[in-house]
């Protein structure tokens, strides 16, 4: 799916990222490791930051937002566990990097971004690497995308003190929602699952640090 020329650029740092930052830290999903090894992260940051694109940390993408640390992207994706036939809702597309990883693993990704310049940048980045199964709208992620619901998988890439009810409402039975929850000072990455009767269960995965959901 990804344009071949980008798979060759920065190939060695990308492989090192997968081995040293992901495999060495309990990212065991083969499909997630494969996707992370294919998406050219340097495309999603400013040219001046390209040399740091595969480093172990978040990077600024403007407007007070960041591209998440590779390990956190991999962890959230592994916990979400998207399947080839899934329609995924992503809240907070940012520069499009997480969207690209999800696009390699799911049928369709419906992404919402609050900031218009980032939405445009995300669309540009995804088109550059030939990803066409991400549908990106400008809007309030707390409201979800009701016209396209329900979703078997929902990923939120920004923290909130309370999980927005619209997102759990739009989660399909037997679905999974991954979201950072807590105040600015202390957040937890939370997995919410919904059973066939519509009952929700919540599980803490790890500590984390994200920008706020706006």
Q: What does this protein look like?
A:
With 214 residues, the chain is an alpha/beta fold. It has one domain (4-208): Rossmann fold. Helix content is 29%, strand content 27%. It has helices at residues 4-8, 11-22, 30-38, 70-80, 97-103, 116-128, 165-169, and strands at 59-62, 65-67, 87-91, 108-113, 134-138, 151-156, 171-181, 187-194, 200-208. A 7-stranded mixed sheet has the order 5-4-3-6-7-8-9. Helix 2 packs antiparallel against helix 3. The longest helix has 13 residues, at 116-128. It is globular. It starts with a helix and ends in a 6-residue tail after the last strand. The model has no long low-confidence stretch (mean pLDDT 94).
Quick rundown:
The protein is of the alpha/beta class.
N- to C-terminal separation? 32 Å
Overall outline: globular
From N to C, what is the helix and strand string? HHHEEHEHEHEEHEEE
CATH class categorisation? Alpha Beta
- What is the CATH T-level topology? Rossmann fold
- The averaged pLDDT comes out at 94
Number of strands: 9
Using the 3D structure, state the CATH architecture: 3-Layer(aba) Sandwich
Number of domains: 1
Specify the helix fraction band. Answer: 25-40%
Strand content: 25-35%
Largest sheet: 7 strands, mixed
Question: What order do the strands of the largest sheet run in, or round the barrel if closed?
Answer: 5-4-3-6-7-8-9
CATH superfamily assignment? Answer: Vaccinia Virus protein VP39
The chain-level structural class is alpha/beta
Q: In terms of per-residue confidence, which ranges show pLDDT below 50 for 5 or more consecutive residues? A: none
